[in-house]
Amino acid sequence: MQLRRAAVLGGGPGGLYAARLLKLAYPACDVVVHEQGDPDTTFGFGVGLAAGTQRKLAAADPDTLRDLVAAGRRHDMTMRVGGRVARVRNDRLIGIARTELLAVLRQHAEKAGVRLEFGARRTADELDADIVLAADGVSSATRESGPFGGRIESGRGLYLWCGTDFALTDAVFAPVRTEHGVFVTHAYPYSGGRSTFLIETDEDTWRRAGFDSSTEATPVDASDEKSLRYLENVFAEQLRGRRLIGNRTRWLRFRTVRCDTWSAGRTVLLGDAAHTAHFSIGSGTKLAMEDAIGLVEALREEPDRAAAFARYETVRRPAVERLQELARRSRLWWESFPSRLHLPVERLMVAYMSRAGNVPLDRFAATSPDVVGAALEQFAGGPGPADPAAVTDWVLRHGTGRGGGNLVTIDEAPTDPWDGTGDAVVARARRAFDDGAEGFLFTGPPGRSALLTRLDLAERVRTEVGGPVVVEGPAALRDDLAAGLVSGRTDLVTLVNDPAGNPGRNS
Ligand SMILES: Cc1cc2nc3c(=O)[nH]c(=O)nc-3n(C[C@H](O)[C@H](O)[C@H](O)COP(=O)(O)OP(=O)(O)OC[C@H]3O[C@@H](n4cnc5c(N)ncnc54)[C@H](O)[C@@H]3O)c2cc1C
Q: Which InterPro entries does its entry note (predicted)?
């Protein structure tokens, strides 16, 4: 389509990248970014950019990617529990300071000829343009005041985003048990002298530590110093005695944003304004920048605005919703993380990698043979196969069976095994156990989503009530069942033939 003037609301990663791509595609178009903040006072610490995202950015705009990679810091991932460490190599994962990311994107936007206006809060309606790209973030006023059907779901857990003034060698996931409960950090380096510390906890622990009152007492433009000082002690080992630095740091609940539609008239939403995905899959920046690529491609391909916006949504929505579903499972896993601290660190790493059903066990075995090898040995009491392709069958040989004795069948499938319906299943299982049940058989629909949820529910019952638990699933989903066994979600699995012809893990 033809474009003379385009306005971008919001100078975050989504808005800045869209502005540059738009200007490169339409050199004669006047492209203006309106950002309420000042370029030197952006908030936040580091964000991660994974290999897949880098490949997409390389195809869309190699110049920008080159500078982002140069400003970032590559790191591996480690999990540390009870003095033991499991390490996963990750050749292309980088952490980059949000300030650096935005500086690079601003520079490239200006180089392409985009005008940047800072320091005034604007509304989509007041901007004079053929199209308005609303990239105004998770609290988007455009979404809230427009006909987009926006909905927000808040997570149960609480998180706090802060940093420290030295660079960790690797990304680290470390839980620490305190007198108030468990706190977990996901920390990673993002520059020569800085690391992000993202810290999570559950509501009960948060209240017991008195953080409900410290949150309330912290003004919006300040940091919750009481929490930071407490957490400095909790994570003293990971921090090597250094301080935690806040930047408008306070406890928050993650908000998952969904919309019925992403466009109305001349206005189109992108990035966090349109959708969010829990930070534990590190995808917010990726989604915002990939939206920018998809939107500009659609504008180039279609003859008019309505067709372009429709194409953008048709192309992007399935990818976004798939990631939102992975993020939902990942969020539930992290929110229930303390219940898994009894697992040896290698099995915990397998549980982490398979938490959302996105990394098959055999693929993980191929890239991290030492971690998976140790986990298989812990699971079966003897060494597993050297060939990663043989891992799934080997695990299933050790963990397939119907269990003996008096098993109680559970066929409920709540979407969230940790919600009220999940609580009711656990209460019923506990009563059955007290009445002499010797274990539980989890059965239900053959679809993949239902099986993954069944494995989560089985894990909850196994941990909170006792086992053995047996999970039934279609033979086509053997990878998920094998990962469930090694991760301690179930004691045994039963394979059934799937008459509906379940297509397997890639479905
Ligand atoms: C704890 C945490 C950790 C995260 N970690 C990662 C990670 O590891 N990897 C990752 O990819 N993502 C991560 N994210 C997510 C990431 O920060 C966001 O998803 C990403 O910044 C979204 O980009 P955006 O451009 O859509 O919105 P934003 O970055 O939020 O930018 C929106 C911009 O719009 C401006 N604005 C808003 N309203 C107006 C207005 N009315 N007028 C003018 N300007 C306005 C704001 O000032 C802001 O600059 C994390 C998020 C959180 C909360």
A: FAD-bd, FAD/NAD-bd_sf, PheA/TfdB_FAD_monoxygenase
Which ligand 1 atom is nearest residue 122's CA?
42
Res 467: pLDDT = 78
Right CATH for 5-75+91-151+256-331 from 3.50.50.60, 3.40.50.720, 3.40.640.10, 3.40.225.10? 3.50.50.60
In angstroms, the CA 122 to CA 7 distance is: 11
Q: For 189-198, what is the mean pLDDT? A: 87
For residue 123, give the ligand 1 atom closest to its CA.
Answer: 41
Mutate to test the pocket of ligand 1, among 195, 248, 279 (most ligand atoms within 8 A of CB): 279
Cα(138) to centroid of ligand 1, in Å?
7
Nearest atom of ligand 1 to the alpha carbon of 44: 17
Q: Is the CB of 121 under 6 A from ligand 1?
A: yes
Q: Which amino acid, residue 351? A: A
d(C-alpha 234, C-alpha 228), whole Å: 10
- Give the position, in ligand 1's atom list, of the atom nearest the Cα of 16: 25
Ligand 1 touching residue 278 (CB < 6 A): no
Residue 194: exposed, middle, or buried by beta-carbon count in 10 A (0-12, 13-18, 19+)?
A: buried
Q: Are 440 and 467 in contact (CB under 8 A)?
A: yes
> For residue range 35-46, what is the model confidence (pLDDT) as tens digits?
999 887 656 688
Pairing of strands 46-49, 30-35: unpaired
Listed in order, strand segments (DSSP E) in 53-210 are 73-74, 77-81, 84-88, 94-97, 115-118, 131-134, 151-154, 158-164, 171-177, 182-191, 194-201
- pLDDT-based confidence at 282, cuts 50/70/90? confident
Ligand 1, atom 27, residue with closest C-alpha: 137
pLDDT per residue as tens digits for the range 376-423: 999 999 999 999 999 999 999 998 877 777 899 999 888 899 999 999
Residue of 9, 17, 21, 47 best suited for mutating to test ligand 1, as the one with most atoms within 8 Å of CB: 47
Is residue 214 a contact partner of residue 226, using CB atoms and an 8 Å limit? yes
Segments making up each domain of the chain, as ranges: 5-75+91-151+256-331, 158-239, 342-496
For the record, the structure tokens of 185 come out as 């950090």
Does ligand 1 come within 6 angstroms of the Cβ of 46? Answer: no
Beta carbons of 493 and 396 less than 8 angstroms apart: yes
Q: Is 136 in the pocket of ligand 1 (CB under 6 A)?
A: yes
CA of 500 to the centre of ligand 1 (A): 42
């919600």: which residue's tokens? 419
CA of 11 to the centre of ligand 1 (A): 9
- Spatial separation of the C-alpha atoms in residues 349 and 81, rounded to whole Å: 10
The strand pair at 5-9 and 131-134 is best described as parallel
